[in-house]
Amino acid sequence: MTELRFLVLGSAAGGGLPQWNCNCSNCAAARDPSSGLAPQTQSSLAVSVGGKTWAIFNASPDIRQQIQQTPQLHPSALRQSPIKSVVITNADVDHIGGLLTIREKQAFDLISSSAIDAVLDANPVFRVLDPAFVRRHVISLDEMFSPLDGIEARIFAVPGKVALFLEEGEPELGLEGEQTIGVEFVAGGRRAYYIPGCATLPDWLCARIRGADLVFFDGTVFTDDEMIRVGTGVKTGQRMGHMPITGDSRSGSLDVMSKLDIARMVYVHINNTNPIWRDGPERGAVTAAGFEIGHDGMEINLA
Ligand code: MLT
Ligand code: MN
Ligand code: ZN
Predict the structure, then answer these.
(1) Measured distance CA(16)–CA(166) in Å, rounded
(2) What homologous superfamily does CATH list for 4-297?
(3) Residue pair 73/60 in contact by the 8 Å Cβ criterion
C-alpha cells in the first residue's frame, strides 16, 4: 500500500513569523515564548512514500533551519541527503531563495514549469547549483511526472501573477499561465493538492479539487485589506496574487472551498498579519468551516 506522507516544513508566507522587521501583534507574540504562538518558517512542503526519501515543494530561504528541525531530512552518510527532488510552484523569493542554501554538490532533481525555470535561468546566481549534480527538469502543464519513486504528480496553472521582483508597473492579476502552479498528487487511489499561491478559485479549479482527500491552500490573508488595516503595507491580498480567506461567496476561499466536499483542507503560506495564527473569532470561523491551520512540523499521512 502506498501511503503518501506530507510534512509541512514551513507554514508561513514570505517573511515568516515573526518577520525580521515587523512588530505587529502576531510577530511580537511569536518573539515571546510565553505567548503560546511558536515562530513559523517560510512556505515549504515535504512529501514522501515510506519516509526514506523526500521531495520538497518550494525551497524556502529557511530551508537550512527546516532541515535541521526535521530529523527525517538529516543525512545518513558522510555526504548524503534524503531530499531527492525539489519542485518550485512559483518564482517568488520565499519559494526559490533556499536553492542557494542547498548548493553543495548534492545531486537532486530540480523540477518546475518552463516559465519558472526561465526565471532561474535568467538569474546567474542560481548557477551555483552545479548542473553536474542538480538535474533541471521542465514539466509541461498536466503532464504526469514522478517527483519521487512511488508518487505520481501533475502540475497545473492556477490564477496568479509574475514574481514580485519581476513586476513592472501594474502586473496582470489572475494570469493563468505557467508562472504560478498547483500540484496534484495521486497514489493508492488518493488525491491531494498543494496550492500555496492562488488569486481566485474559478469554476474549473473548484471542479478539479472537488472531492479531494487533502488540499493545502493559500491562506495568506484573512481579509483582503488586512495588511492595510494592520498598517504593515499598502497592498491588498488580491494585488499580491493571493485570494483572501474571507470575502463574498466567490472571493473568499473559506466559503468556496467548504462547499467542495474535500476531506481535509489546510491553510498554508499564512502571512504574519493573519489573525488565524491565534485564538479568536477568525481562527474559530476557519476551524468551524472544517479547515486546519498549517504549522511547522504538521504531518498528514494518507493511507
Ligand atoms: C508572495 O507570496 O506574495 C511573495 O512571497 C512576495 C515576496 O516575494 O515577498
Ligand atoms: Mn509567497
Ligand atoms: Zn508582523
Answers:
(1) 21
(2) Ribonuclease Z/Hydroxyacylglutathione hydrolase-like (3.60.15.10)
(3) no
Q: Are 57 and 194 in contact (CB under 8 A)?
A: yes
Q: Cα angle at 161 between 244 and 130, to 5 degrees?
A: 120
Cα 281 to middle of ligand 3, angstroms: 19
The domain locations on the chain are 4-297
User: Each residue's pLDDT tens digit in the chain (303 positions)?
Assistant: 579 999 999 999 999 999 999 999 999 999 999 999 999 999 999 999 999 999 999 999 999 999 999 999 999 999 999 999 999 999 999 999 999 999 999 999 999 999 999 999 999 999 999 999 999 999 999 999 999 999 999 999 999 999 999 999 999 999 999 999 999 999 888 999 999 999 999 999 999 999 999 999 999 999 999 999 999 999 999 999 999 999 977 899 999 999 999 999 999 999 999 999 999 999 999 999 999 999 999 999 998
**Is 12's C-beta closer than 6 angstroms to any atom of ligand 1?**
no
User: Does the beta carbon of 197 lie inside 6 Å of ligand 1?
Assistant: yes
Pick from 273, 276, 298, 302: nearest CA to 287: 276
**Could you give the CA distance from residue 197 to residue 88 in angstroms, rounded to a whole number?**
12
- The pTM for the full model equals 0.98
CA of 94 from ligand 3 middle (Å) equals 16
Cβ of 268 closer than 6 Å to ligand 1, yes or no, is: no
Tell me which residue has its CA closest to atom 9 in ligand 1: 14
For ligand 3, the distance from its centroid to the CA atom of residue 298, given in whole angstroms, is 22
Pocket test for ligand 1, best of 93, 226, 274 (most atoms within 8 A of CB): 93
